[in-house]
Design a protein that fits this description.
This protein is an alpha+beta fold. The protein has 4 helices and 11 strands, in the order αβββββββαββββαα. The chain is elongated, with a radius of gyration of 19 Å.
Length: 185
């Protein structure tokens, strides 16, 4: 990987200029050249990294949040998560988000994988975790995050996905990874 044969297929960047920049989103116009020599300006959206966790209890259930997303004007189940603050590590972010959004803390948080949801146009690393050894210590302090919390059996997740009740990319990938990693019965 990364040998001379691949280098000739890499796009070259000749320059970047910010079109819009605030603490939540940055839009750049990037002067790029494709391997065939075609050169043009390409829009790139840059977002802060996100951290998401599947909170699994000892009954093989996952804690889900029922949320409305105004952009798509749609309801669905999601896992707790949030944007990584400058100077924080993703694992610190997810521990805080779980406390704020659910009122639970975890004895163990394990990194599963990281992914980019829309390569080619959007730079937005998503860090996915699994949390176990859950302890309820209070009520959620972030009251705008969900209409309700619900413990759902992991076995019910494929049906919820098929019905379109789970449609957020970070939630989908986290839950699919958890399901695919389970020992076959």
């Amino acid at each position: 990987m990364g040998g001379d044969g691949e280098k000739r297929f890499a796009w070259r960047i000749h320059g970047t200029r910010a079109i819009y920049d605030n603490p939540w989103i940055k839009l750049d116009l990037v002067d790029v050249e494709q391997p065939d020599g075609h050169r043009f300006e390409h829009h790139v959206v840059r977002l802060r990294a996100a951290a998401i966790a599947a909170m699994i209890d000892d009954q093989d259930r996952v804690l889900m949040l029922w949320r409305h997303r105004f952009v798509a004007d749609r309801w669905g189940y999601e896992l707790p998560g949030g944007l990584v603050d400058d100077g924080d590590e993703p694992i610190e972010t997810i521990a805080r988000e779980m406390r704020e959004e659910t009122g639970f803390r975890a004895a163990r948080i394990e990194h599963l994988l990281s992914f980019e949801p829309m390569v080619g146009m959007v730079d937005s690393p998503h860090h996915l975790f699994i949390a176990r050894g859950l302890e309820r210590f209070g009520e959620p302090t972030e009251v705008n995050e969900s209409a309700r919390q619900q413990w759902l059996p992991l076995a019910s997740i494929p049906d919820l996905i098929a019905r379109g009740e789970i449609w957020n990319s970070g939630t989908l990938i986290t839950l699919m990874h958890v399901l695919l990693s389970r020992p076959r019965r």
